[in-house]
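Researcher: Structure prediction, please.
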Amino acid sequence: MTKYRWMYRLGFTPWERYGAAGGAQLGVLLDREAAGRPNGPGRALDVGCGRGQFTPELARRGWEAVGVDIVPEAIEAARRKGPAGITYVVGDVTDLDPAGLGTFDLFLDIGCFQGLDTGQRAAEGRGVTALATPGATLLLLAFGPSRYQRLVEGVARAEVEAAFPGWELLEVEDADTAGLGWPMNRTSPKWYRFRRAAG
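Model: Predicted structure follows.
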């Protein structure tokens, strides 16, 4: 996770750049999640929430929103930014604690999975699974493999699926690239939507 901390210090946070460019599409995806719940939105975890750019979008749609990130400075910034009613926790996404966090009906991962190695991705998958209620869903954004792999490490669909055994891949949707700028607009970003088995 040292590289991740340095990215904040150097001001290189491509997931935040995506938020500015892809906010409209994210809003549509989150609206669908909220509308598809017969009992209304429940609890949602923003995995690798950073400075809380996306967590408020969950709260605005009625979710009991929690954000977790390993960088204390990022969590402090998220808490300062607000709004009230959101819980932000310093924690390792590769070692999620069910006892401390509870269970969730929705997981949102925008760029966190991207920055992990294979072993860490599997650990995130195990942690998310341990926190998932039956029928929980996961929305995950990942940039695909490309010739710019050294700049923006790509993730293939098979790698995403391998990290979440026991989850059903429901949809794969192209992510908006307008406004992302080079090289991110050359990496075929995808939104993945999974569901945890209800039984």
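Model: Strands lie at 43-47, 64-69, 87-90, 104-110, 132-142, 167-174, 190-196.
Researcher: Thanks, that helps.
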